[in-house]
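== Sequence, structure tokens ==
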Amino acid sequence: EDGDEFLAETTVGFVRRALHAASSQRRSVQTPSNQLRARVRQYILAHLSNPDLSIDRIAQSMGCSKRYLHQVFAAENMTIERHIWRLRIERCCEALAEQGQREKSISEIAFEWGFNSSAHFSRLFKEQVGVAPTSFRRKLAAAG
């Protein structure tokens, strides 16, 4: 019985330490900065197609300064603006790949995802994807 009691106490101790460690980890992950970053990412996804989406608008919506937003995202390897452009390009790639979007012009798709300049879209697209949007669409059409 002494062995069983010792084993039970040891097991309870391990479980208690594991739960405490997990609880501490959750608390450290839920810092105000991490919570704000998550809220900003959600806001960006919800408003990605809005051409007026900007750091100013995000800061106003989050009730903080632009400087604080930049500080919160300083650990990231990408600014908020670049994050927005990257996501928009990804959505444009998805739209260009969709069969149902083939009748739309490339500019139409870009404008639907918040771009307001075809030249800016094309430059960013080529920078991120490695080919011009027209080449990307042509390759997709040839492949499928």
User: Anything to note?
Assistant: Helices lie at 2-29, 32-47, 55-62, 66-72, 80-97, 106-112, 118-129, 133-143.
